[in-house]
Amino acid sequence: MLSACFNTDLVVEITMQPVRRYGVDAAILFSDIVVPLRAAGVDVDIREGVGPVLDEPFRHERDLERLGSLDAEAIAGITDAVAQLVRELDGTALIGFCGAPFTLASYMIEGGPSSGHHRTKALMWSRPQLWDALLSRMADLCGEFLRAQVLAGASAVQVFDSWAGALCRSDYVDRVLPHSRRLLAATADLGVPRIHFGVGTGELLSDMAVEECEVVGVDHRVDMADAVRRIGLGHSVQGNIDPALALAGGQMLKDATRRVLAQGACARGHILNLGHGVLPETDPARLAELVEWVHELPMRRLPAAPLADTQPLVEHSAPSSGTVGS
């Protein structure tokens, strides 16, 4: 998996496949959140059936010495792939991405995926100086990685905080969000939209809607109407069809998608997407049907669904929501 992420030809081919197959409105760069760690000299690997693993976790000040700076030569294959993709996409947007500081730090501290992130939280609470030093390094490293993608031609970037939902709000705001903002700010001068996405972060959405991003991603665990209220009208939203609905298919999938579109119409803007990744057992034909159906909808905002007992937050005409494959 990681070898493929550094191979120009494979990155291009795998990124292009969903665009060719489904006709989505944007491509997402084929990569993995631990790619910048490997490019900075961290001995991390992706094991089949497990995920990212480190044989020697980061738990002491001396471990910071194992984390180098981003090696431009090491990611040359990736930036070459971005440049080639921009040519092949011929105007279709390319979204670059990276992991958020907290999620990467969790893998590094735990040594791999964790259900409770207990070691991560313990270090965060008991050794705040080490914690801040590690997440600051993560923010700078990933910021360089995002800049390299944009300078090579990416039209937008997305930051994935896969494990932020494991935190209570106060810990997230005080100990994690400042580092995510630092990462998002790394591309501020490049003028591309920035998407801030987390998993299980429904209670954190108002905090994730920082000025350093233009779009907040919403997973499928919260209704889009609630998400728009929490995020406010200063940001666009992305999401949030439940991936399991693609297994149900048929009218159920269409009805749920129409509801998401109607609720998203209340936001400043809306990128229609799944609320998380495609499930492996999903029939690709159902995804193709969904994209085709959405593209056939009138090129206008659908009538906004009532938000509880309130009126829609905003009413305006705009192109219909785009569909982004992931």
Summarize the structure.
The protein has 326 residues and is of the alpha/beta class.
Structural overview:
- This protein is of the alpha/beta class and 326 residues long.
- It is 43% helix and 14% strand.
- A hairpin with a 3-residue loop joins strand 2 and strand 3.
- The protein is globular and about 60 Å long.
Order of helices and strands: HHEHEEHEHHHEHEHEHEHHEHE
| Percent in strands | 5-15%
Number of strands: 10
By secondary-structure content and strand pairing, the structural class works out as alpha/beta
- Low-confidence segments, given as residue ranges, are 302-326
Q: Which range best describes the helical content: under 10%, 10-25%, 25-40%, 40-55%, 55-70% or over 70%?
A: 40-55%
Notable traits:
single chain, 326 residues, alpha/beta, 8-stranded parallel sheet, two-stranded antiparallel sheet, 13 helices, 10 strands, disordered C terminus
